[in-house]
Specification:
It catalyses: a quinone + NADH + 5 H(+)(in) = a quinol + NAD(+) + 4 H(+)(out). With about 425 residues, the protein is α/β, with parallel strands linked by helices. The chain contains 19 helices and 9 strands.
């Protein structure tokens, strides 16, 4: 596997007016669409299957396989829905992609819709990012003007209309079925599955739901071919992806690289930990993926590598925390977020996170006991896997992993009656904690 950067989706981000159709076409934009329309829809589905493209929204499900689940004999229309409701803490790849190069997403939407037989597609954008919503709307309008959308696209006989929809800013709407409810005008809450969206999705019709980066990767696969895509990454996790580095890193930002690159390699590209500090812990895919430590610097950032160390690749939102960070405080802030963003439909999630916040706040103040740690783990067991969606599973991830890796730090809080990392506390606390580590 090559460890050099592979700018495909990010290749035009630094160009002036990169978001315009004119500049996109100068860079061979929409040529992949012309090529796709000369082939059968089944050929496109097979090409994406052969490429091994896996969902870039977190789950990593094979994209071509997902497309093939659409029933061929359904009397109902087929829909494509693009999940652009990026709201996972630490995740910041889809928003800059839509800002800098929205036409690659629009082209991917058209090709995907052609492949699955959809005549209507929806791009569900997080409503709080109004500038992104406007930019995508403008790109869609430009595509209509050029004949890439509408009736009889490029003389192919294929028709497609695209609607850009602004959500109301709810984290739960990143879950695909809650997104569908929101798109239909209802309160965003996850649905019971089955039936799955491929059979009964938007308006109870066959629906494909994919992440922005997944759909934006389709034009390059059509242009370069499945083998070209597989030449990057590895056998089970092929291709490239955008890795978002944030936190205590010298040069935070988006780094597009083959799947399987390591955090050590990415940190070298990003100038290392800022201020000459040491890495303490990090998340590979946002706060809903179990945290890792410096021991995992050389684990491949691919689906199998992360699973092998008890975490998940997720959205590749690499949040970096140095040795000045209190893991108890960080975990408490994350759980406060999940408590706030729970839709309230499921009792374990709605009640469990509320109680977790109370315990974590008490632990951070140094008022807890070691029995509280066991209680947190027991609550995690009773929350995970017992809700309609993955918010519950993701929400307990930082709790379980932080206790697994930093139990001594939790204990230090109530042994010394406060946070060892509080500037008002004695430096002796931090020295003793460092000696234990």
């Amino acid at each position: 596997m090559t460890t050099t950067l592979t700018p495909v989706l990010t290749a035009r981000w630094d160009q002036a007016d990169s978001f315009t159709r004119r500049n996109y076409e100068k860079a061979d934009g929409y040529k992949a669409l012309r090529r796709a329309l000369q082939r059968t829809p089944a050929d496109i589905v097979e090409m994406v299957k052969d490429s091994g493209l896996r969902g870039r929204g977190g789950a990593g499900f094979p994209t071509g396989m997902k497309w093939s689940f659409i029933p061929k004999d359904s009397p109902k229309p087929t829909y494509l829905v693009v999940n652009a409701d990026e709201s996972e803490p630490g995740t910041c790849k889809d928003i800059p992609l839509m800002m800098a190069d929205p036409h690659v997403l629009v082209e991917g939407v058209i090709i995907t819709s052609y492949a699955i037989g959809a005549k209507h597609a929806f791009i569900y954008v997080r409503g709080e990012v109004l500038h992104v919503f406007r930019r995508v709307m403008n790109a869609v309008a430009e595509a209509y003007e050029a004949g890439y959308l509408g009736q009889n696209i490029l003389g192919s006989g294929f028709d497609l209309d695209v609607v850009v929809h602004a959500g109301a800013g709810a984290y739960i709407c990143g879950e695909e079925t809650a997104l569908l409810d929101s798109l239909e005008g209802r309160r965003g809450q996850p649905r019971l599955k089955p039936p799955f969206p491929a059979v009964a999705g938007l308006y109870a019709s066959p629906t494909v739901i994919n992440n922005v980066e997944t759909i934006a990767s389709v034009p390059s696969i059509v242009s370069g071919g499945a083998e070209w895509f597989r030449s990057m990454g590895n056998e089970k996790s092929p291709g490239y992806g955008i890795f978002s580095l944030s936190g205590h890193v010298t040069k935070p930002g988006q780094y597009e690289a083959p799947l399987g690159i390591t955090l050590r390699e990415l940190l070298d590209l990003a100038g290392g930990i800022r201020g000459g500090r040491e890495l303490k812990f990090w998340t590979p895919g946002g706060s809903s993926t179990p945290m890792l430590t410096a021991e995992h610097l050389d684990v491949p950032l691919d689906f199998e590598g992360m699973a092998g160390v008890g975490s998940m690749l997720g959205t590749r939102a690499l949040q970096i925390f140095d040795d000045t960070t209190c893991v108890v405080r960080a975990t408490a802030r994350w759980i406060e977020f999940y408590k706030h963003e729970s839709c309230g439909k499921c009792t374990p999630c709605r009640e469990g996170f509320w109680w977790m916040v109370q315990i974590l706040e008490r632990l951070e103040k140094g008022e807890g006991t070691e029995a509280d740690l066991d209680k947190l783990l027991d609550m995690s067991d009773n929350i995970a896997g017992r809700s309609f969606c993955a918010l519950a599973d993701g929400g307990v991830a930082p709790v379980v992993s932080s206790i697994q890796h930093f139990r001594d730090e939790y204990i230090a809080h109530f042994e010394h009656g406060g946070c060892p990392f509080d500037p008002a506390a004695s430096t002796l606390f931090a020295q003793e904690l460092g000696a234990k580590a």
